[in-house]
Specification:
- This protein has 19 helices and no strands.
- Helix content is 65%, strand content 0%.
- The protein has helices spanning 2-29, 35-44, 51-59, 62-72, 86-93, 95-111, 124-143, 148-157, 161-172, 177-181, 183-194, 198-208, 213-221, 232-250, 263-268, 273-276, 280-297, 310-316, 334-337.
- The protein has 338 residues and is mainly alpha-helical.
Amino acid sequence: MRAAFSWEKEAAVEELEVLMERIRERIEKMPAMNAVALELLRVTSGDGYSFQEVADILASDASLAARVLRLANSAYYGLPRRVESLGMAVSMIGVRALRRMVMNITTYDLLKVNLLGYGLEEGGLWAHSLAASLAAAELCDLIAYPHQEEMRLVGLLHDVGKVILSPFLEEAVEDREVLMAGGRTGLKLESELLGINHAEVGALIADRWNLSPRFEEILRCHHAPEESANLPRGTAIVNLADSMVRELIRSEEPFKAVMGLDRAALRILHLTEADLLPHLVSINSRILEEIRQWTGEVLEEDGAGEAPGGAEYRDEWEPLGWEEGDLRPGKGEGNRVL
């Protein structure tokens, strides 16, 4: 009996090792992050650059440059005259807004895939990631965290590991409710089934892309911010942003969107649910505006029509009908939670 048990254990370990090798192969084959976008981030992270230098960097990628010009002339930016060159785009939009535009475009190219292992159709992960990026920026404003641009980018990439793991989960899981719910429970299930989770895979991808160790740590710990040795506040911001935007879709009443937030993340940032509740309307409106803009402008390629899944995901982000008055502490059932 003991020999049989030992054989089964060895077989399970061997199967897990084979699975891990397949996962490592997928990480190695994953397309690198756009080199021009990374160079743009590097150059504009410091001082001493010129608008022309930024324009020249963009010009080295014809496809990216064309998309930047198309977006610069969209109704979203509302510029007073048509933008005819990259130099005009940089000067009229501004470097900070341009950085955000380029990163949104670049991450869409990476994250737009179907993730059936997580129950997400094409565009679903990218839309969630964009929403988390915006919520992270709002949280940075709330607590006066100085690295807002960094948190925006980490918010965009926080679930990139799911791109690698989705096919394996598609094979291993029939009921995807736990994975769709996310959080620590979903992370635990990934580890049990595959021997690794999407947060750990995300950190491996960040290392392969030569992103800073700061990115690696936040990606690795974003579901357990108390485990972040060097960046607990940044990690907690991404944790709360991720949870808030997921709950905003599900919640019919505003106070419910802050009910299940991670206690460790709240403690690290010295926040309570009551602190976050007044910001839900602005976060929700900001996300809705951005999702509509980007599904209308970025996801359409050269007039080819709307990207698959775009309309369905926009429907999920329809306004929840909340008013500022709905967010008064103690209104309705909210006092039981707060």
